[in-house]
Description:
The chain has 133 residues and is mainly beta. The chain has helices at 9-15, 18-24, and strands at residues 44-48, 54-57, 61-62, 70-71, 80-85, 92-97, 103-108, 118-121, 126-130. The model has no long low-confidence stretch (mean pLDDT 95).
Amino acid sequence: MEPKxxxxxxxxxxxxxxxxxxxxxxxxxxxxxxxxxxxHDTEGIYVCAGCGQELFRSNEKYDSGSGWPSFWNPISxxxxxxxxxxxxxxxRTEVVCGRCGGHLGHVFNDGPQPTGERYCINSLALDFxxxxx
Length: 133
């Protein structure tokens, strides 16, 4: 397991583009169907836009029709952390980067087999490295 990254909000603000900061640090959500990785189908690895940690493989990505990149599995369970989220008056499970704690999106139990999970992730929380799987 890689060491955790801990930065102040001000440090993140200096390092990230404003739209990435709004999603990763302020837990925002990009509008559906607008993210660059929603219909992206190149082979490779999706990594955290905050710290570069590998998160999801392209061969575990699918079109959920939700408007956000969706994956049925992370690379490994230690790459992401699942956090209860009761904001908006509903119970959801937030997905954060296991290394830097950046907000990635949410996971739902309406995905395809073999996991039945849908990791619904903001494109702004991701970068992409072609190849490597």
